[in-house]
């Protein structure tokens, strides 16, 4: 069995790339952090109205979560992968009967990454959105515009 020089070149290139990949993924002798799956849940806590919203990733035009409608007391969730090399920013426009549109960044990597870890739950009230952690809530103002 003979190996052509072209095939041998391909094997050598693949070995070099594999070696480079292993070296890049090592930082001070430790494996680089891997992406983690983050769950974001939006709970409708309005008094008596469907919550309508549209969310999208502000860093990627291809990530648009579309129009959603959630009844009072119900929830809706989405997932994404986060890594130290990608700081996500998911913005939503909310509306309900009798109110003007409200805007809020439902997931900011810098604000929510450590506070939520892998599970970020939000209760949406008329006056503001509140991040839920166990029995604690931290509320934030709606964004202007």
TrEMBL record:
One of its GO terms (biological process) is rejection of self pollen. Keywords: Secreted, Self-incompatibility, Signal. It is found in: Secreted. Residues 1-29 form the signal peptide. GO terms for cellular component: extracellular region. PANTHER family: PTHR31232, S-PROTEIN HOMOLOG 29-RELATED. Belongs to the plant self-incompatibility (S1) protein family. This is S-protein homolog.
């Amino acid at each position: 069995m003979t190996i052509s020089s072209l095939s041998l070149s391909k094997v050598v290139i693949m070995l070099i790339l594999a070696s480079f990949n292993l070296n890049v993924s090592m930082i001070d002798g430790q494996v680089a952090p891997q992406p983690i799956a983050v769950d974001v849940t939006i709970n409708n806590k309005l008094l008596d109205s469907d919550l309508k919203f549209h969310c999208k990733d502000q860093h990627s035009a291809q990530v648009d979560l579309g129009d959603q409608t959630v009844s009072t007391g119900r929830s809706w969730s989405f997932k994404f992968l986060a890594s130290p090399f990608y700081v996500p920013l998911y913005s939503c426009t909310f509306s309900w009967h009798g109110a003007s549109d409200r805007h809020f960044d439902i997931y900011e990597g810098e604000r929510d990454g450590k506070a939520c870890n892998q599970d970020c739950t939000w209760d949406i009230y008329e006056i503001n959105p509140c991040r839920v952690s166990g029995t604690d809530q931290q509320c934030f103002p709606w964004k202007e515009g």
